[in-house]
Amino acid sequence: MVVKAGFLELTAEVLVGKDNPLLQLNELIEWERFRKYLKGLYRNEIHGEGGQPYDVIQMFKALLLQQWHSLSDTDLEKSLRTRLDFMLFTRFGLEGIVPDATTFCRFRNKLMSDGRFKKLLNEVNQQLGKRGLAILKANAAIVDATIIESAARPNRVIDLAHDREESELEEEPLQISESADSDARWFKEGKRCYFGYKAFVSTESEHGFIQQLEVTPANQYEGHFLEKTITGLEIQAVLADKGYATEANREWLRKQGYLDGIMRKATRGQALNEVEKAVNKLISKVRFKVEQCFGTLKRRFQFQRASYFGLRKVEGQMCLKAMCFNLLKASRLLMATG
Question: In terms of domains, do 68 and 200 share one?
């Protein structure tokens, strides 16, 4: 049996080719380092009861493949049975053993309920940092937010939150009823309304890697989440758009010793002067990297809309997409530099 598995693996590697992106990712990351964040998910790990669970590293890698290719649980199971690169990446299927769709769903839900995905994203970034990619220790963090539409829509809505109108957001909380996704909220940006969540992201300023993230219902005012998005990073400056231009945020940046790179905002009766306009242009020349990040997440990784209901599950999916984004960017950069 061992000889047969070894022969199948060798044949698969020849057919797939050494330049396959998944095989390169296997070399890029020390996957065993994730095991400490994946322990204790199964009852028999704690009490010694039940059958032997699937290996948590293999399961985690399968979830990454699922989000990388935007697959359903059923399609993930089918792909692990038919795609040689999937088999080599996870080692599922090389010996004829592939978990079913329900097993993947339960494993993902366990991880999401425990809120472990931020730790897994941090581990990815720590390892990439050792490869010379300064993600958590960067010159600057670029902060912004994007909308993730819910997998469901409500049947009835009573109120709408408006883009960046802090006073309106605080006067009366949004009322929603009869929705399958009870954590999602409505948000109005310009003339368009969205139902779902808001993802706050910090990216490093050189290449645009995702450093940290926070997911909230869509009606949350973005100016309140600057501190939470960048706390713990080793940076010198923070760049952000006008939505973060509050006195509280600027004062917090001063106290932390960060260079204030929040774009200047005109007020009623007081337009921006030439110096402030020039500062905004300089910030915009760097801040576009976070917009590129959102574009890649939504186009390449098909994350315009969440696949699951509930705040914790959407944040877990966002973390998985962020890991895929960083791994894709890292593999391309490291290949280009030899």
Answer: no
